[in-house]
Structures are given as structure tokens and as C-alpha cells.
């Protein structure tokens, strides 16, 4: 792999920035100052550093994002801004994509990755990776409504959802729903089958991941090592 490519795929620097750093003597390969940005290196074996800071090679990246309102879960869209537009160019150039979808007006936890196998496994119905949502509805819910959620709801197209856990707050118009599948607009359609209407929806968990309380809306960070290991375990990789 070329040295400038290495810095690009590690989201460290663009190729232009790498060339400038090399000219300034800031890049070392195995302790030796690099002379060319197109120098061939082995990312698995060589020790690369920028201004004395070791740069670790990671073929796959995992980003946790707190999705704001109005963004679509896609890599590109002709009308609306996408969640990828919330990331800097060094990350969008990594080939990241949303692992699953949230509706345009649904908020909360999203996982972005460039690991197609892990994304496929996490979304596979066979693994039943749970996702929890905080919700509010227009009209109060009752015990019968909750039982229908827990038994599975027949949607307007005839599809019967898998059982979904639901808890209600004291106001009977808010609470949490936990799904083990992810059909199109599923919670909204389940509420519509009960002649109700979602007014607020936020994903708070995805498998072993929990939306951090200190991550502002629209902000993102890479998964910690512990979170990454938990995701790989959930995907059975």
C-alpha cells in the first residue's frame, strides 16, 4: 500500500496533506523519515507515525452517530441531506454507509461502517438484534394496545409483525418499544394499526450499543474498542 493511501484509509490525512507532511519530515516508517508520499509500506507490519504519533491501520471503521431530524439514512440523495454529510471528508472517503435505516424524522442512534459483512449480519432476521426506541403518540395507549404489540400487530398490507416489547410512562402517551426486526416505518405503522399516531421517535439502542447521553444531536464518534468487540460478537463474526 502507498504511504499516502495508508493515511487516507486511516482517516489521518488527505493525500495532499500527506505529501506536505512528508516534505516537512513529519512522517516516519519504522523510525526512518519517509522521503516520498508514494512509498510502498505494509500496513500490517510497518510502524507508521505522523509527528511522532503512531498511526494504527484499521481496515474497517465503525462510527456511532446521533441522527438529527431531517437527515435521510443513505449515502446520497437528490433532495435531502444524508447522514454522511455530518461527517468530515476524511471519513466520507472511507466508503461508510448506514447499517440499517432510520426514517427522515426519526432521531437517535445510527451505526455507520464500511464492513458489509458485519452490517449484513447485524440486520439479518436470523440474529434478531434488538433495537429500542423512545416514542410519543397522539392518543393515550391502554393495556389492550400493549398486548397487541407484544403479540404482533397486523399492518395495513397484511404483514404480521414479530412480537415487540413495549413499556408505557405514566402519561400513557410515551414509553419505549423494542423491535427484533426492522420493517419500513414499522413502529409508525404498528401505531396506525391501533388508530394512533407517532409524534416523536428516537432510537436509543442498537444491539449492544446505547446512545451516549453526552453525544449531542448531529454529533458522532468512532466506537470504543469495547463497543466494537460487542458489535462483532453480536454479528457472530
Explain the overall architecture.
Helix content is 23%, strand content 24%. By secondary structure, the chain is of the alpha+beta class. The chain folds into three domains: 3-55, RNA-binding S4 domain (Structural Genomics Hypothetical 15.5 Kd Protein In mrcA-pckA Intergenic Region, Chain A); 62-125 and 208-234, Pseudouridine synthase I, catalytic domain, N-terminal subdomain (Alpha-Beta Plaits, 2-Layer Sandwich), CATH 3.30.70.580; 131-206, Alpha-L RNA-binding motif (Alpha-Beta Plaits, 2-Layer Sandwich). Strands 5, 6, 7, 8, 9, 10, 11, 12 and 13 form a nine-stranded mixed sheet that branches. The protein is elongated and about 70 Å long.
Please name the defining characteristics of this protein.
7 helices; alpha+beta; 237 residues; Alpha-Beta Plaits; 4-stranded antiparallel β-sheet; 13 strands; 24% strand
Task: Tell me briefly what this model is.
Helices cover 23% and strands 24% of the residues.
Fold-level CATH name of the largest domain: Alpha-Beta Plaits
Uncertain runs: none
Mean pLDDT across the residues is 95
* Total E-strand runs: 13
Number of domains: 3
Percent range for β-strand residues: 15-25%
Determine the number of helices (DSSP H or I, runs of at least 4 residues): 7
**Given this structure, which CATH class of the largest domain is correct?**
Alpha Beta
Main sheet, how many strands, which sense, barrel? 9 strands, mixed
CATH architectural name of the largest domain: 2-Layer Sandwich
Computed over alpha carbons, the radius of gyration is 22 Å
Q: Give the CATH superfamily of the largest domain.
A: Pseudouridine synthase I, catalytic domain, N-terminal subdomain
N to C succession of SSEs = HHEEEEEHEEHEHEEHEEEH
Amino acid at each position: 500500500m502507498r504511504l499516502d493511501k495508508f493515511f487516507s484509509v486511516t482517516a489521518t490525512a488527505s493525500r495532499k496533506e500527506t505529501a506536505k507532511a512528508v516534505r516537512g519530515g513529519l512522517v516516519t516508517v519504522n523510525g526512518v523519515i519517509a522521503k516520498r508520499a508514494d512509498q510502498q509500506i505494509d500496513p500490517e507490519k510497518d510502524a507508521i507515525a505522523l509527528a511522532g504519533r503512531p498511526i494504527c491501520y484499521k481496515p474497517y471503521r465503525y462510527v456511532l452517530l446521533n441522527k438529527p431530524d431531517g437527515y435521510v439514512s443513505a449515502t446520497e440523495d437528490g433532495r435531502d441531506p444524508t447522514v454522511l454529510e455530518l461527517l468530515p471528508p476524511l471519513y466520507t472517503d472511507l466508503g461508510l454507509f448506514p447499517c440499517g435505516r432510520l426514517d427522515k424524522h426519526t432521531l437517535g442512534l445510527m451505526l455507520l461502517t464500511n464492513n458489509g459483512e458485519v452490517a449484513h449480519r447485524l440486520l439479518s432476521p436470523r440474529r434478531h438484534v434488538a433495537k429500542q426506541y423512545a416514542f410519543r403518540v397522539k392518543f393515550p395507549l391502554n393495556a389492550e394496545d400493549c398486548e397487541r404489540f407484544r403479540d404482533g400487530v397486523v399492518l395495513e398490507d397484511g404483514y404480521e409483525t414479530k412480537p415487540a416489547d413495549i413499556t408505557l410512562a405514566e402519561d400513557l402517551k410515551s414509553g419505549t418499544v423494542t423491535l427484533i426486526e426492522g420493517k419500513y416505518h414499522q413502529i409508525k405503522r404498528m401505531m396506525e394499526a391501533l388508530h394512533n399516531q407517532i409524534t416523536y421517535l428516537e432510537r436509543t439502542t442498537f444491539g449492544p450499543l446505547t446512545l451516549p447521553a453526552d453525544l449531542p444531536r448531529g454529533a458522532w464518534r468512532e466506537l470504543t474498542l469495547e463497543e466494537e468487540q460487542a458489535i462483532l460478537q453480536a454479528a457472530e463474526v
